[in-house]
């Protein structure tokens, strides 16, 4: 159940609200509007007065609601109308008028509008014009002339809504922490539908601003990227000449006066204000120490694979910073993907956006490598290649998002946990569409049975606990192919397998065969180590005593049979 508070101001605010509630609606969606409850239980009902002109009854109802406000004259508050739509979920049972009346009374009591038993409280009405929701309208002056005590009314109403869901057996929504982005209004939704848009202007702008932040390494680049995506930008400049904020609008998005509708960055989302964006950009510069250039897909994958470690072993600030960087990576990935999967990746990014914010302050510095590598991919579309890079990044992201879900769950971030779960579903769909053709292409280059048998022995030695699962997997041919390619590049199959396993445990891999395929493909494309490096690597490996096996390595099937 979703309640949403809207405040109205002006001398005719009450009349405008009543006119809207008993009118046809912006899309003729208001059917059979009528009162289900009121402050005195006998307020005039424009929807149930068949022998009177409905407009006259609306005037009468608005006057009665507004009477305490009018008595104050010039001392009336700036905002005089409290309007709260309350909507049930689509799968909820249809409630009766009596049930909606009880819900309305509980909501106004929780908000401080009309506490139980307070006969001098504010005047209010509850109007129903659809099966799934009501609108509560109240005036913000009590009948004794005082102001209502409605401190933190949004929070109190949300808390009461959660209890109503329990009491009526309705769908139970997750409590929030106040960090969610502002939802589009009903008016914005209707406008988008009227214009044939899949999303509201607010949502389109939020996506474009997030992508610009993810792609930019400086403030100038951020504004340039926004303009390049068709967004009009208006900086907020102080008399000193300092730019302290910005607003954005879409071309052609105008109000009734044909004026552009501007959205401040902070109203799109709390982390999209200019000060917050500057904090992000300050940690997006190059690494302090020079790093050798490499394949950005491989670098992005390696950085994404490290996120679970940060979430399980790092402090909360660093973990939150990793989630912000992962969200930025997901924002940019759709721009590098084939058209067929772009929609799923966009939906994954939109869902995970909620999982990138919490009350925990983010330490962004540790995620610098991931941000820079994804930016490098975006700046160089030619690096997309055969899709293997994208597949391996998404494979790593699936594990990272799964850990993000668990991280939020342990900290009771309910909405963020649900957002991560939704992102997982979209990522899984995209991964299946991308990875399938890539793995099939690798499988067509699979070596002979004799070579596969030799490689299988290496797999059994490297990962005995996963060996049979890997060898029976449909991705085994692809894994064998990349092992042979690594050998052709000068690597030893046994060594590169040990390196792949040593990078990160396979315990949390969704598919060990695929995880090893991507890792070995990355390792195999690096320069083969020289003889001295190979000797040092072998020397660092544990050497079992005669008749024993190395720690964590099980005997081969033949050895088991001999014993």
From TrEMBL:
Ranges for domain MobA/VirD2-like nuclease: 71-170
Renumbered residue ranges of the record's region Disordered: 542-563
InterPro entries xref list: Endonuclease_MobA/VirD2
Domain of life from the UniProt record: Bacteria
One Pfam family named in its UniProt record: Relaxase
Protein name: Mobilization protein
Organism, as annotated: Streptomyces alboniger
């Amino acid at each position: 159940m979703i309640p949403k508070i809207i405040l109205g101001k002006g001398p005719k605010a009450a009349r405008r609200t009543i006119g809207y509630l008993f009118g046809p609606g912006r899309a003729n969606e208001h059917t059979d509007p009528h009162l289900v409850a009121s402050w005195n239980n006998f307020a005039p009902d424009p929807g149930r007065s068949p022998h009177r002109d409905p407009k006259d009854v609306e005037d009468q109802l608005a006057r009665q609601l507004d009477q305490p406000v009018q008595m104050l004259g010039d001392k009336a508050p700036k905002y005089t109308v409290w309007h709260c739509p309350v909507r049930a979920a689509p799968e909820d049972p249809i409630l009766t008028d009596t049930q909606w009346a009880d819900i309305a009374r509980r909501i106004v009591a929780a908000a401080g509008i009309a506490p139980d038993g307070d006969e001098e409280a504010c005047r209010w009405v509850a109007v129903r014009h659809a099966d799934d929701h009501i609108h509560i309208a109240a005036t913000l002056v009590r009948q004794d002339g005082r102001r209502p005590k409605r401190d933190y009314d949004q929070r109190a109403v949300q808390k009461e809504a959660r209890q109503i869901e329990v009491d009526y057996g309705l769908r139970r929504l997750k409590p929030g922490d106040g960090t969610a982005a502002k939802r589009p209004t009903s008016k914005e939704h209707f406008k988008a539908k009227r214009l044939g848009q899949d999303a509201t202007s607010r949502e389109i702008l939020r996506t474009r601003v997030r992508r610009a932040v993810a792609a930019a390494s400086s403030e100038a680049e951020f504004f340039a990227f926004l303009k390049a995506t068709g967004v009009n930008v208006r900086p907020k400049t102080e008399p000193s000449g300092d730019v302290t904020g910005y607003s954005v609008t879409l071309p052609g998005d105008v109000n009734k006066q044909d004026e552009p509708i501007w959205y401040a960055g902070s109203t799109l989302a709390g982390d999209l204000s200019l000060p917050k964006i500057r904090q992000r950009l300050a940690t997006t510069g190059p690494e302090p120490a020079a790093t050798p250039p490499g394949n950005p897909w491989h670098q992005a994958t390696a950085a994404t694979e490290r996120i679970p470690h940060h979430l399980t072993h790092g402090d909360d600030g660093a973990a939150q910073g990793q989630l912000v960087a992962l969200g930025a990576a997901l924002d940019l990935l759709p721009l590098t993907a084939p058209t067929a999967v772009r929609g799923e990746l966009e939906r994954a990014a939109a869902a995970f956006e909620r999982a990138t914010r919490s009350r925990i302050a983010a330490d962004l510095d540790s995620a610098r490598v991931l941000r820079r590598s994804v930016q490098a991919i975006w700046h160089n579309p030619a690096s997309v290649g055969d899709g293997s890079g994208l597949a391996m990044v998404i494979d790593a992201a699936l594990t990272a998002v799964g850990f993000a879900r668990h991280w939020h769950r342990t900290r009771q971030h309910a909405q963020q946990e649900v957002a991560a779960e939704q992102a997982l579903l979209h990522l899984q769909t995209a991964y299946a569409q991308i990875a399938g053709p890539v793995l099939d292409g690798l499988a067509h280059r699979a070596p002979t049975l004799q070579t596969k048998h030799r490689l299988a022995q290496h797999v059994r030695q490297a990962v005995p606990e996963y060996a049979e699962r890997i060898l029976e997997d449909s991705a085994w041919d692809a894994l064998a192919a990349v092992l042979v390619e690594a050998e052709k590049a000068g690597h030893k199959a046994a060594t590169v397998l040990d390196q792949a396993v040593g990078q990160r445990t396979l315990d949390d891999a969704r598919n060990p065969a695929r995880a090893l395929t991507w890792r070995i493909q990355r390792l195999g494309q690096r320069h083969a180590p020289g003889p001295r490096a190979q000797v040092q690597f072998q020397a660092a490996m544990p050497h079992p005593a005669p008749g024993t096996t190395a720690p964590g390595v099980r005997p081969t099937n033949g050895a088991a049979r001999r014993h």
